[in-house]
Every structure is written in structure tokens, then in C-alpha cells.
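Batch manifest line 488
LIGAND: magnesium ion
JOB: complex structure
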Amino acid sequence: MFNLGVRCVQSTKIQVDTVLFTLVKLRNYVSFKTAARCLSVNTNIQRRFYSNNTMLNLKDFCISDYDVIGFDLDGTLLRYNLNNMVPLEYELLVKYLMEKKYPRVLLDKQFDSDFIQKGLIVDAERGNLIKLAADGEILKATHGTRFLSSAEIEDVYGKSRKWDIAQDYINDPLSAWNGPVSEKLRTLLDYFDIAASLVFAQAVDALDETVYTNTNVLQKNDYKVWPDILSGLIQMYSRDHFASGTSAYFEALKQNPEKYLLKTDQQVIQLLRELRSSGKALYLLTGSNIDFANFTASYALGPNWRDLFNCVVSFAKKPGFFFMQRSFLQNNNLSEVPNSEMPLQDDLLAKGKSFSQGNWEQLNESLCKHVLRKDVNKTSRSLYVGDNLIQDVYAPYTKASMDAIAISEEMFENKSSYEYYKIIQSSSWGSYFNLNGRPTLWFSVIENYSKLCISQMDVIANVPVKEKIQCGNQHGFFPNVPNGQLVQ
Ligand SMILES: [Mg+2]
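JOB STATUS: finished
ARTIFACT:
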């Protein structure tokens, strides 16, 4: 689940080991079978974009090309009712800050779905939120909830409108996952942490209104709000808190799952069954602890959800899972067995099918041996599907030589009839994919590191597994490019 984009950089090792990392934590298949048909329904702007023979570079995809296929759970196979879940997160974070004695004026502020957008970046010490272009230029920024003018952005970040810390992050998002950079910059990349942007901004406003009234707040560079938000997220999502009943977030979901969780489309479940029965090696890889994963997966995928996969890995600690040499631990009775670390050379699937933590190399080797019946060194193609652009797309692509499918509900940002439209679009921040014709950082990550970008799993669930999906664009969006993202 949670990749809370929540990295626990200031926590002790014990805390880190007990926290669900989410920082890294969302139907309508339109059967465009040919690129030409895709283009035929798109705008004349799109036709302009695809001039100059760029048709030659159109991306395509066929799921049966892959031998080993991994799936993220939260936001991928399991979707949430965002209209209920995001306000719950907001409410709990505000409550947490009030317990930390934040100014009471914070309670007067309201949930504002329009201020929320996936992919915002926290400039923690300045109390700012920023939205970046692909090259790192700041497209929009706020101090607290107030949007900065262009001149103010240049006053704070320089004429180039670039923040050096953000440049470091763009150059190597994984190096910034922990360590000094992550104390200054946070990315809010999934629906488990996007409410944090609003709470952070409103808390900065509350302090400016009541504590820093005689300060030039745009020059102030030592806000301490983010560490409190982070500890609030840890309180909500720490894995031990599901069993102990000490997280109001988990308790709300336990008491009212139908309010927060969606049943996974039967066609998606059927796709998994078909892939597995055709001999593909399927695994589920989630940041959630096994007890919470079992709770949500049982609701969404059914009580026999484990049977859909050859292997289940919980508390996987992505993105490190894809490139670090962490040991697997056994799961038993919905909990990780203490001190059950398995040697890195062990044959995983000879010892069960549900594990915690671990590493990609060992999992891949065992899946190849037991499912594909071939040596890992023989060519096998791997695919990973997930919604977090860094841990589910960038990391597997760059560190584990996999192709990746990016799930982005923001592809519905111009579809006002979409049920969760209010959460996934923001008129304040503008398109998730571009602003004034310039691609955002996240658009470029999708374009560069994903094989395909879809709004939901349902989109590909009823495409025959051996059928080639042709995107109709070189960026990988299917069935078509979200409106408004085109570079002018
Ligand atoms: Mg996810």
C-alpha cells in the first residue's frame, strides 16, 4: 500500500521497520484497435502533434509478450473510493496536528479538493508546494495555500525558476528516497498522501496568521511543519497499527470497508486467472503488511485472492525491493514471522508462496524455476504494473530491466462525469500532465519509463491477452492522450 511517499528518514531503524512505506500509494475500456481509429476521435490539436511522421514511433504493447508479471495492489488491482478516502486522510491529519498544539485557526479551514493534486512537491523548509516541468522549472508554486506570482517565484528560487534540491531529485529520484534531500523535498505521489499537501499548506497558513505575523514569510526557511505531517502519516499507516487498532485510518476502513474500498472489476480478476492459467508467472507486490493486504484484497478480489498469484510479497519496501539485496521473511497467520530471514540464495517458492520484504532478484529466479521451468539466465521478459511513478515505474524500469505499466486516474481529469473527478483534477494547479503546453515532470516520467499508461486496470482487462494494443501516440497513453497535455 503505502508508499506514503512516506519515507521515514528521521525515524529509527525500528520505526522504519514497522512503518508501511507508501510514499510511494487508483472504466470504461474504449476499444480502439488501431492507431488510426484512436486518432480519428481525437482533436485537431492531436493531429497537429502527430504530424511530421511521428506516427512511426507510436508505442504498442501486448501483455502476452511477458513471462513474469507483477502487480501492485493499492491503486492498481485495488481501487479506493477517493471521495471518501482522501477527506478521511485530511481529517485525521488535521486532528493529529491539533494534538500537536497547532493554532486553533487550523480548525476553521476546510477540505478543498481543488487544491489537491497528485505529484505536488513539498519544499518543506520554505512552507511551499511546487509543480515542476520536465526540466525542473517551477511551473506553479504556493506558499501555504497562496499561489505565488511569477515574480515571487523568481524572488524565491531565482531567475531560472529552478530549485537546486529539485534538480538533484530529478537527476536521481531514488537517491532522494532517503537521506538529506528527502528531509527538504517530498513528493506526494499517490492517493494515500495527497491530502498531506493541503494539510501542510493550511498548517503553514495557520502559523503565518498567528505566529509569524512579523516575518517575511517568503524568505523564511525553517518551517517545521513537514516533520509533524510525516509523523501523522506514520501514525495512520504504521503496519503494526492495523492489528493493534491504534490507527483511526485502519479502524475506519475496518468498520466500513464498502465506504472506502471498491470491488475489483470481474474482468480484471478474469485477466489474472487467464494469464496464470496460460503459464505466466504472476506475483503481487505490495508495501502493505500482510494483514492489511489480506483485508483489502479479500474485499476487492475475493476471499481466494491469493490463488490469483504464484507468489505474494507484502511489506515489500519498494522501490528498494527492485535493486537491494534484502532478505525475505516468512508470513504466517497474517503476520511476518520474526527472525525468519531466508538466505539470499534460497529457492523461495520451495518454501511457500507468501513472504514479506525481500528482493526482486531472488523472487525472479524462483518464479522462473518453478513456474516458467527455465533458468533465470534464459531470456524471460518482465512487466510490472503500478500507480506510483517512482516506485512502480521508474525503479523497475531503471533498476530491474522491466517494462512497466503506469496507472494514472488523472487521465480522467477532463471527464467531469467521472465519479472521482473532484479529487483527480485541480483547476488551481492545472493539468497533471502539462501546463501552458509544457509537459510536467510526471508526464515525462510516464513517457520515458512506462511502456503504457492507462487510467485503470479495467482498460486493458477486456483486451484479448494476445492482442496488440496500439496507443496511437509515442507517449504510451491508452486509449488516447489525455486532453490538454500536448506540447505546443
Ligand atoms: Mg499503489
